[in-house]
């Protein structure tokens, strides 16, 4: 799914074809490798893993953009976005868990 969503994102954002597809495919692959382990870890470690996975996605996109000569954002902004994702993981996870319990989703 990562490749198809990435290709759609490339078409939507008018970026070089395959830029986001490569980044999302790599991120989906790494997520599939760590998914089972991630569920049994504590929330702090989960937040760090989310930070790393989002960081891999953003850094891959940045490297491709920089190689093509049209990097829109500086690298520290990409890192800030990854840190924000990691910091917001706990409230988002808690909200999703609450919704799951309210609607009895198993």
- Which regions have little confidence, pLDDT < 50, spanning 5+ residues? none
Strand content: under 5%
Find the structural class using helix and strand composition.
mainly alpha
Strand-and-helix sequence, N→C?
Answer: HHHHH
How many strand units? 0
Calculate the mean pLDDT score and round it: 90
Structure at a glance:
The chain is mainly alpha-helical and 106 residues long. It has 5 helices and no strands. The two termini are 23 Å apart.
Structure description:
The protein has 106 residues and is mostly helical. It has five helices and no strands. The model has no long low-confidence stretch (mean pLDDT 90).
Topology, please?
Blueprint: H1 2-13, H2 19-39, H3 43-68, H4 75-87, H5 89-102
Give me some keywords for this one.
mainly alpha; globular; 106 residues
């Amino acid at each position: 799914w990562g490749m198809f969503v990435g290709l759609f994102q490339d078409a939507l954002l008018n970026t070089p074809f395959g830029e986001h597809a490569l980044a999302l495919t790599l991120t989906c692959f790494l997520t599939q490798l760590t998914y089972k382990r991630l569920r049994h870890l504590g929330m702090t470690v989960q937040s760090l893993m989310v930070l790393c996975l989002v960081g891999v996605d953003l850094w891959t996109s940045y490297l491709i953009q920089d190689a093509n000569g049209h990097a829109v954002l500086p690298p520290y902004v990409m890192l800030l976005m990854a840190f924000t994702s990691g910091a917001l993981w706990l409230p988002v996870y808690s909200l999703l868990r609450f919704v799951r319990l309210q609607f009895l989703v198993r």
